[in-house]
Amino acid sequence: MGEGEEEKRTKQVTFFSVLHGVKIRINEEKLLLLEQILILVRELCVNSVTGRRLVYWYLNMGNLLKVLTCTDLEQGPNFFLDFENAQPTEAEREVFNQVNVVLKDAEGILDDLQSYRGAGHEIREAIQHPNDENLQEKAWSAVCPLVGKLKKFYEFSQRLEAALHGLLGALTSTPHSPTQHLEREQALAKQFAEILHFTLRFDELKMTNPAIQNDFSYYRRTLSRMRINNVPAEGENEVNNELANRMSLFYAEATPMLKTLSDATTKFVSDNKSLPIENTTDCLSTMASVCRVMLETPEYRSRFASEETVSFCLRVMVGVIILYDHVHPVGAFAKTSKIDMKGCIKVLKDQPPNSVEGLLNALRYTTKHLNDETTSKQIKTMLQ
Known about the structure:
By secondary structure, the protein is mainly alpha-helical.
């Protein structure tokens, strides 16, 4: 079967499902006629029985036109998620309050990370003059409080993991679908978005700050040397050996917070075996679709009170794509993925280049399945 015949066959099969058993072939001339009819229907008053019937017909014909123009019937959830003003309902309040205790510290963590300068100068001086005790003490005194900050960042990642478990439990529970959950529990959806936003911001800052790993490596080497020489270390109470090992694994990751969320989501799935994995992955893909639709629909986008909300929405869309790609068995880029990757990339590329280059790089370099053979050449080209 040739490519053209295959395309016609696909149209007919989809058409069959929409019209409940009626198979129709249609040419471009008839398609134009249908479009003209739809324009007339839009202009009709809907405050009459006839008008309402026509509108009902119009909605069904809208699905028909989607088939005829080869666009997907599943265009994704079509509702506005209020990232700016969503407030918890009584049903959401318990989980919301638990998560809020964690999120209120997120901005402070980012501020501390952004201002983290490291002890590179003191460490270099100490290494270059190993017999100068004064320089050794100076480097140690500079590093210890910084390691205290790194400990705080790591411990926050553990708190974030617990918060994510609570949110996923609420947003994936039966019998509601992911779309119903996100539409009804907008305050929890907003918190989930804030966790994703924080995660990308944290990892961006960490990736551009080599001082973090340098400081921690120096701390561990010096601590080990002190133990061998039986020298008491004042900073040891700050980070014991077991915690240091866990922190070392955390900071060795290129994107440590994303790894934390990915592991937490995978653990949530394994801990809730009675819950279909699709409930979790569909929650992620639905969130990505909601963000994409809001960004590409002028009616929705105009409702954002601040331009910062656009940036927030873009970052959340990318964050949830990356998380989906790490958690879903075949990832976000496969043909069977429930995320419209071409649409999401197009939304990113429609923004001012300087504002989204970091997000495009996140898709290029922190996803898991982009370079798989199952990823279409078109998507790979779009991200080059």
